[in-house]
Amino acid sequence: MINAQRKKIIAIGSLLVLTLLPSGPALGDTIKDASINSTDLKLVKSNRFKASDVGFLIKDLSTGEILTQHNANALFVPASTTKVFSSAYALEKLGADARFNTQLRKTGTVTDGVLKGNLIIVGGGDPFLTASNLFQMAIDLKSQGIKKIDGDFLYDESNLPGQHAIDPASELDQGFNPGVSALSVEFNRFFYWRSGRSRGTAKSQFDPIPQIPSFTLKKSNSNFPPGTDQTYQVNPGGEEWSFSTKKRYPRRNELPVRNPGKYTAEFFRFLANKVGIEIPGSKRANNKIESDLVTQIRSKSVLELSEAALEYSNNLFSELLLLQAAKKENEEVPDLMSAAQMLQAWVVKSTESKESSGIVLVNGSGLTAQNQVSPELMTEFLYRFAQRKYGEKSFWALLSISGWKGWIARRLHDNENSFSVWAKTGSMDYASSIAGVFFTKRNRPIAFSIFATDKEKRKKINPPLNSKSLKLKRAAAGWNAKAHVLQDKLLHHWITSY
């Protein structure tokens, strides 16, 4: 079913590129004027990459001149550089100062500290809601004299569509692939501790932090599929994670939350109990209920959230920002794939793109090999949006800085290259990318994108894995490190040459 849905999105995405053709000059008309620099090609080959696995394009921000390109119209896996699109989309559609509210509401009356009615926690799509925020809500509830709820405790996540995982075909036991919901907390991740003197799983105990009764951990004597460390089941009461006695686990690690609305509600209930409030187990609200506001938490601004999404590459941030922006454009957006389809159409329109430029998006974080983008389109997007100002900051000021911060803090950190590259990176197994703006030694600003994808190896590590493909997957770290070296060498060459 998942594969069928993705094929449908890809087909629709291709149709969108065909139908949203602009009039007048368009992206793709001038690409023939640029050719690859011989040094660039030598760098690709000397770093042991096939020429077909690499693509790039660089364009002068001041003059619009394309200085060099290679495979500029080819499609590559953009990984987290997709966040460049979703962040700009959110800023454009929502505005830099927009914020999202998480509310605690009630029905009925309070008598002798008892609420004779329902308590409702309502998610507003804040991707940065924390345990401290929930604790403050509990304190605010108690300050109104409420010590017990004599009614239902409901959670409402209906403000945005949700799903159990960002990418159902990706690693489902990894914290970077959490569930998505309008009611989310702590990035929809939780930690577990393994206790016991033995390193073996059979004699160990696994405890979730926080210890919420409806979210449980258990041991299993089953052999899990290759590449899978934990399995899970989602049910109306919460979720259950299993650890195989045939595997060994670290003392502490994180896992994704698969039922975020339920988890957030139970997390609040857990914290409310700390301040002496008795709340029954949570239930999902089936419809909107007329109620009174008790307290609310306002999110950081869209500008702040976008900067965090770009600097820390948080997948949940990007997906919730995408859903918020898509909802602003169409109140009835049904799911994440539909929101990604809207983002794709917007990118095509914003870059005046032709079919040859190519883009297919199925989510806004880049956590999928199904996303496909050409260097030509990415660079053109940056050429048009890098200097656009949102609130107090220009878009390129939101990006990571070479030698200083974000995912390129430890790259290009020498005196010649530090602070010369402002960019977003992306990485999946056998797919690596970097896109942004660099400054030459003459302080000439250049929009750029560099993509590397080994499509043959990517295809071989698609689930389900076997022992051979698992070995190939584990070797991906070396390939990606090699891609970083190539990207940095290309950037250094361009910084010193133009």
Structure, described:
The protein is an alpha+beta fold and 498 residues long. The protein folds into two domains: 2-97 and 302-497, 3-Layer(aba) Sandwich (Beta-lactamase); 100-299, 3-Layer(bba) Sandwich (D-tyrosyl-trna(Tyr) Deacylase, Chain: A). Helix content is 31%, strand content 23%. The protein is built from twelve helices and 24 strands. It has helices spanning 2-19, 38-46, 82-94, 131-143, 260-274, 302-312, 315-329, 336-350, 375-385, 455-460, 467-474, 476-497; strands at 54-60, 66-70, 101-106, 109-111, 114-116, 119-122, 148-149, 153-156, 189-195, 205-209, 215-220, 230-235, 238-244, 252-256, 282-284, 292-298, 359-360, 372-373, 389-390, 393-394, 400-401, 421-428, 431-439, 445-453. The strands form seven sheets. A six-stranded antiparallel sheet has the order 2-1-24-23-22-21, with helices on both faces. The protein has a five-stranded mixed sheet with strand order 15-8-6-3-16, covered by helices on one side. Helix 2 packs antiparallel against helix 12, helix 3 (82-94) crosses helix 7 and helix 6 (302-312) packs antiparallel against helix 7. The longest helix is centred in the C-terminal third of the chain and has 22 residues, at 476-497. It is globular and about 80 Å long.
